[in-house]
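To the wet lab folks,

You asked to see what we're planning to order before we commit. Fair enough. Below is the target structure as tokens, and below that is the sequence we designed to fit it. If anything looks off to you, flag it before the synthesis order goes out.
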């Protein structure tokens, strides 16, 4: 995908893939967070932890970590977030009727927010 971005002169976007970014004073980390297959879940849990550790190693432990996931978080992902004192998690994937199953609000000290475009009526959500 990086090659595609370069070839098409998309120089203002990138991917979270075992890495992190510093935006203002926040570490942005995350992964896809698939939740249906045991093998893939284990891989995604590892990727989340690698992403968080990358941010801490590059930018320091004193910065707040914001997690971005594609899929809604399950307990295993929440446990990793708690381990690193994450306070905010944004995720998507749920659309239409499925949004009634959204996990939102403060759960175990983490503020969760569904940010699927149709759920937000295609309006930006300020982080």
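Sequence we intend to order:
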């Amino acid at each position: 995908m990086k090659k595609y971005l370069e070839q098409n002169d998309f120089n203002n976007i990138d991917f979270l893939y075992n890495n992190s970014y510093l935006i203002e004073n926040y570490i942005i980390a995350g992964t896809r967070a698939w939740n249906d297959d045991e093998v893939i879940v284990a891989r995604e849990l590892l990727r989340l932890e690698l992403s968080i550790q990358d941010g801490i190693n590059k930018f320091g432990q004193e910065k707040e970590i914001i997690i971005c996931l594609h899929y809604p978080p399950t307990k295993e992902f929440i446990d990793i977030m708690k381990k690193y004192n994450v306070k905010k998690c944004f995720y998507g994937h749920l659309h239409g009727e499925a949004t009634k199953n959204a996990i939102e609000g403060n759960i175990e000290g983490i503020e969760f927010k569904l940010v699927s475009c149709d759920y937000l009526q295609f309006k930006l959500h300020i982080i």
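Structural context that might help your review: The two ends are 26 Å apart (CA to CA). The CA atoms of residues 6 and 35 lie 31 Å apart.

Thanks,
Computational group
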